[in-house]
Design brief:
about 90 residues; alpha+beta; 4 strands; about 50% helix
Length: about 90
């Protein structure tokens, strides 16, 4: 039930964070997180537009190149990989 959903949200958010940092973004805060985290680096407008152009709802722009990201149990690993790949292309 809820425990499984919470576990999936947490696992997928940490997976997404790892993929985005591998793509070139950096984690804005060195603190534990559950399902939401903030990255910085690159142009948040360019990143979010590139994701939107591929029908992917990116994170919430916070200004100064920071983006608040979230992953839920509904996100598949392949969707997370696809989003991170797009971010990597934008940051090249």
């Amino acid at each position: 039930g809820l425990r499984e959903i919470a576990s999936q949200c947490c696992s997928k958010a940490h997976y997404l964070e790892e993929m985005l940092t591998d793509a070139g973004l950096t984690l804005a805060y060195d603190q534990p997180f559950f399902s939401e985290f903030v990255t910085e680096g690159g142009s948040s407008d360019e990143i979010l537009k590139a994701l939107s152009d591929q029908d992917i709802l990116g994170g919430l722009p916070l200004g100064d190149g920071r983006i608040l990201w979230c992953a839920t149990e509904k996100c598949s690993v392949s969707e997370l990989d696809r989003a991170a790949g797009i971010v990597k292309e934008v940051l090249r």
